[in-house]
Specification:
- The complex is a heterodimer of chains A (about 90) and B (about 290).
- Chain A is mainly alpha-helical and about 90 residues long.
- Helix content of chain A is about 65%, strand content about 5%.
- Chain B has a single domain (about 65-250, about 270-285), classed as Orthogonal Bundle (MetI-like fold), CATH 1.10.3720.10.
- In chain B, strands 1-2 form a two-stranded antiparallel sheet.
- Chain B is mostly helical and about 290 residues long.
- The chains are: A mainly alpha (about 90), B mainly alpha (about 290).
């Protein structure tokens, strides 16, 4: 059995990475079902594919969580909700 | 023309993916794991949640190091980019001096970073170094081990000496790629030297200059070895940039949780800037 104790796993971080992996797998299936990445020019004036939109969503969500931690507090449920709304906005309009 | 899509080509990048997984993704995952835990050694960890992130984000020490880091990067870009373009414009376009200039420009880039730090440490020493002794002999009180302003001056000067050449070489490559027809047209229109620069050379150098800005931003934002060897982050914390502070927290104080949280925040900042530059570059190409 592969010993991964040196990586100091916790169930919380494992869940986090599992969600990221699930998102990537989901995007792969989406790309397989509808190839080409659905490129378009959105409100930012940038030509984005759905992969770009996922990246912008994840990076923006990281900053939303950091801003919440720095300015509001350690309860991140509202930051998560805000991130989901932000990601929906990115996928709809960017 | 219809393009043929064959996703099996992605299998070709599998070896690179494995390599990146082992040297980047797995260590990054480990850092994320460390950033939510406390450890006292012996591979024993205690879950702390987002405590370290909050501590880092509200830490005056982190804010100060980040401020110094941005100030250093801004200075480097404001000096090295215009200076590099000016030197590239002054270099000969043909003849035997081209090779001489190119070799001279490439020399600083070949010196290892820690050697550059050691060289400048000796060069700037006030009692025996040429720069330090010369400045003091000229009546300018200079001691980079005691005066923060002198330490900053030396660190910035060292970086300019080491890395302006990169901007010069990139700008020169951009200039060389401009066809002669543009200059001939400018001569017919009796264009001034400034107009040639503003409307021909600068637009044609846009792409290489974007790469130069990106490379210099990344390098100066992650700078560690040269200032560490030169000043060790001092005097006091005057030249303790983010990377030096990070190493102090991780290895000097063994605060692995705080250091890991700092690393993730540092990584996110780098990622954002990379994305912005990449977007600007590809947007320029589309236009």
């Amino acid at each position: 059995m592969l010993d991964l104790t040196w990586m100091a796993w916790t169930w919380q971080t494992a869940t986090f990475f599992a969600v990221i992996l699930a998102l990537l797998l989901g995007m792969t299936v989406w790309e397989w079902a509808s190839p080409g990445g659905n490129p378009r020019v959105g409100v930012l004036g940038l030509r984005t594919t759905r992969g770009d939109r996922l990246f912008i969503s994840l990076l923006g969500s990281a900053y939303i969580h950091l801003a919440w931690l720095g300015l509001v507090g350690s309860d991140l449920r509202w930051a998560l909700a805000l991130s989901i709304v932000y990601a929906i906005g990115v996928f709809r309009f960017v | 023309m219809n393009k043929t899509w064959n996703n099996r080509a992605w299998l070709m990048v599998l070896p690179v993916l494995l390599l990146v997984a082992f040297n980047a993704i797995i260590p990054l995952m480990t850092v994320v794991n460390y950033s939510v835990q406390e450890t006292f050694g012996n591979n024993l960890f205690f879950f702390e949640g987002v405590k370290w992130y909050q501590e880092v984000l509200n830490s005056p020490r982190f804010h100060a190091a980040l401020g110094r880091q941005f100030a250093f990067t801004a200075m480097i870009l404001l000096i090295e980019i215009p200076l590099g373009v000016a030197v590239a414009l002054a270099m000969p376009r043909s003849g035997p001096w081209v090779s001489v200039c190119l070799v001279l420009m490439a020399l600083p880039l070949l010196i290892p970073w820690n050697v550059v730090g050691a060289m400048w440490n000796i060069f700037a020493l006030p009692d025996i170094g040429l720069l330090g002794y010369g400045l003091n002999a000229a009546g300018i009180e200079y001691n980079f081990t005691r005066q923060p302003a002198a330490a900053w001056f030396t660190v910035v000067l060292m970086d300019v000496w080491h890395w302006t050449s990169l901007v010069v070489l990139l700008a020169y490559a951009g200039l060389r790629s401009i066809p002669d027809a543009y200059y001939q047209a400018a001569r017919i229109d009796s264009a001034s030297a400034w107009s040639v620069f503003r409307f021909i050379q600068l637009p044609k150098m846009r792409r290489v200059l974007t790469i130069a800005v990106l490379l210099r931003f990344m390098d100066s934002f992650m700078v560690y070895t040269e200032p560490f060897v030169l000043t060790g982050g001092g005097p006091g914390n005057a030249t303790t940039f983010l990377s030096i502070d990070l190493v102090k927290a991780a290895l000097g104080e063994f605060n692995l949780g705080i250091a890991a949280a700092m690393s993730i925040i540092y990584f996110l900042m780098t990622l954002l800037v990379c994305w912005v530059f990449y977007t600007l570059m590809t947007k320029g190409e589309e236009q």
